[in-house]
Amino acid sequence: MVGLVGGSTARAEHVVANAGGETEYVRRLHRHAPAEHQCTSTLVKHIKAPVHLVWELVRSFDQPQRYKPFVRNCVVRGDQLEVGSLRDVNVKTGLPATTSTERLEQLDDDLHILGVKFVGGDHRLQNYSSIITVHPESIDGRPGTLVIESFVVDVPDGNTKDETCYFVEAVIKCNLKSLAEVSEQLAVESPTSPIDQ
Amino acid sequence: MAAAAICVEDEAACAAAECAGIGNLDLAAAGAGAGGKRSVYLMDCAPVWGCASTRGRSTEMEDACAAAPRFADVPVRLLASRRDLDRLGLDADTLRLPAHLFGVFDGHGGAEVASYCRERLQVLLRQELRLLSKDLGETSEADMKEHWDELFTRCFQRLDDEVSGQASRLVGGVQETRPVAAENVGSTAVVAVVCSSHVVVANCGDSRVVLCRGKEPLELSIDHKPDRKDERARIEALGGKVIQWNGYRVSGILAMSRSIGMYIASGTKSWQNDLFPFLSGM
């Protein structure tokens, strides 16, 4: 399932924070200061796969197509992959964009935080900035992962805040659904999952 | 991309698909003049067809087209009422017209679904037409359209179910239940079944069939666009939303409101083909 947490626009759906402490993670790690003309939202996904598998997929700044269904391929500029690196993402056909240039803002392998900002492309998402965090949790007594993704973005001319949030959330939901499928498949295929996370 | 097909008749050439960037293909039709006047149901209908396609703005070709001359026989009772056939002295129960199939499948997110549709749809249609000949009772004109509706709906539904893995399909002689492609891959499907008396068109998505008769183009299909009033109402009734984001799109993502495959963006597998029987030479 994918749930919505907070956001500057009123949303009918609210996920009750469970023992995993979602609201605490959101409060500490997903701070956005949206301006008047911006919208923001946060989505959560519970994945039945250990956190190290999920994080390995999420942190692949140079290979987002490993789990993002709308990405065709990706080229990172320069040789070193570090904070400040840029990637040029090519999008699959039939979608409302063809390219996106994105900057790696934050990559913390200890706290499992990835921050990305859109700096170019034809997607109409100006000043888009997102944070993804992954957290170990227990699902049905087995190691699972809580994924939280939040974003802030300008509302484009001609669209409302609601529409902009709806569109971005739809894309993120697709990404998180695919992330769950890919990592759960990897969890099934890997021999014995370590529980040291 | 586009495909074009011309059937040579005494009176007119018919059946063409619009070509993006190339304009309408207009192949000259030679009129074959038979000596005596024959019923349109007894005339031969030899297709003269050609196909042209281009990637357009995409970096890869993801489209497919199908041309299958004489792919099946259509029971004449699907095309005319018993009373009309009796008046013409034709055997309503046994007469079958040779039919030809032309289709365009515009893939998005990948070519797998479009390629699958190109091969599979004609097989499914042939099977359905064969089965249908057995349960044609007293068929009125309204019933004819209903039969075509049901026939195409079953074919498109089966096609979609096989693409998604909900129905098994034969691959190399073995039953396969895995999806043809990932959830983000889909295709349009627009087909024209052409015989001497009729062109029957079915559509799913935003590809298009255009008839060029003489110099006047005539649209035979209606695009499934999200901003069509009835499509938008259907989408919203299912809990979806149409957002203008570089054009009107389902959830701001998909630019057509119906598709074979591509479930990830629409959030629902609901679809329905539109059927537009076009009568010619009656």
TrEMBL record, chain A:
It comes from the Eukaryota. GO terms for cellular component: cytoplasm; nucleus. The keyword Zinc does not apply. It is found in: Cytoplasm; Nucleus. One of its GO terms (biological process) is abscisic acid-activated signaling pathway. The keyword Cytoplasm applies. Transmembrane segments: none annotated. Keywords: Abscisic acid signaling pathway, Cytoplasm, Disulfide bond, Nucleus, Protein phosphatase inhibitor, Receptor. Its main location: cytoplasm. Gene3D superfamilies: 3.30.530.20. InterPro entries: Plant_def-hormone_signal, Polyketide_cyclase/dehydratase, START-like_dom_sf. GO terms for molecular function: abscisic acid binding; protein phosphatase inhibitor activity; signaling receptor activity. Belongs to the PYR/PYL/RCAR abscisic acid intracellular receptor family. This is Abscisic acid receptor PYL9. It comes from Zea mays.
TrEMBL record, chain B:
It is an enzyme of class 3 (hydrolase). It catalyses: O-phospho-L-seryl-[protein] + H2O = L-seryl-[protein] + phosphate; O-phospho-L-threonyl-[protein] + H2O = L-threonyl-[protein] + phosphate. Its cofactor is Mn(2+); Mg(2+). Its EC number is 3.1.3.16. Residues 48-282 form the PPM-type phosphatase domain. PANTHER family: PROTEIN PHOSPHATASE (PTHR47992). This is protein-serine/threonine phosphatase. It comes from Zea mays (Maize). The gene is PP2C10.
